[in-house]
Amino acid sequence: MIARFDSPRSRTALLLSALLVAALVLDLWQYTAQRAGRHSSFDNAVSTISYPLERGLVQTKASIEQAWAWVARGHRLARENQRLAAEVAALESRLLDLQEARAESERQDALLSAYPQRADRKCLAHVIAVGSGGWLSYLLVDRGSADGIEQKDIAVTREGVVGQVYAVTTHTARIVPLSDPSSGIAVLVQRSRETGILAGLGNWRCELRYLHPDAPVRPGDQVITAGTGGIFPKGLRVGTVTSVMADPNTPGKLAEIDPAAEFRKVEEVLLLRSAE
User: Fold this and answer.
1) Full-prediction pTM beyond 0.70?
2) Rounded to an integer, what distance in angstroms lies between the CA atom of residue 183 and that of residue 144?
3) What is the tens place of the pLDDT at every residue in 137-158?
4) Of 141, 200, 203, 207, which is most buried by a Cβ count within 10 Å?
């Protein structure tokens, strides 16, 4: 096989090899002459010529060794950077977990403290699914009959009423929100004390029906549970009036309601015993 030296790297290596061989030959020649006791001007010339070459080769060798040392150091630094990057990622993940756990704990503490008067009749639950099937929307929570949950229990957040439990298994419960078309509860306008029925419209929307034609209801009014009907206790926040209009189906008025609880964003609920 014939070696090729057509690349700059190969030519450089060949030149260095040739110079090294020449230097070794000159050294050997000078050494032999000195052993034989021969010193001449030619020896001095050879020494003068070979010294810079030998010095250059030594310096070249030192530079190459230094370069390889830098390369090795670079590899070590790269490995160390990878290790440190992995540690930083692990710490950031741990910090995120701790922040999320803290936020959840703060939400739960606020939720539990929002209903101190019902301390002996409440159960904290996590929403594990939100779904919709046909006309029925629901929230699925991780508490069931094994935790004492029953049908018609009330689901609330710190902001207000979410809905009512309508189906229970051993370890889960389904909640129908106030916005579901099957939902209807007695409420009153807190400022004017006007009463009506809060009905679900689907798509997480609600309206207040059967208001008196002269009812002094206006946008911004707060709506709370009326305490009638035997399910919801009185005084739980339901939502805020956003607009008022004539009811096309009755002589009275309708009011659009912005629910207090954001049903799609609920993460935890407090399950309370119904007023029955």
Assistant:
1) no
2) 21
3) 889 999 999 999 999 999 999 9
4) 141
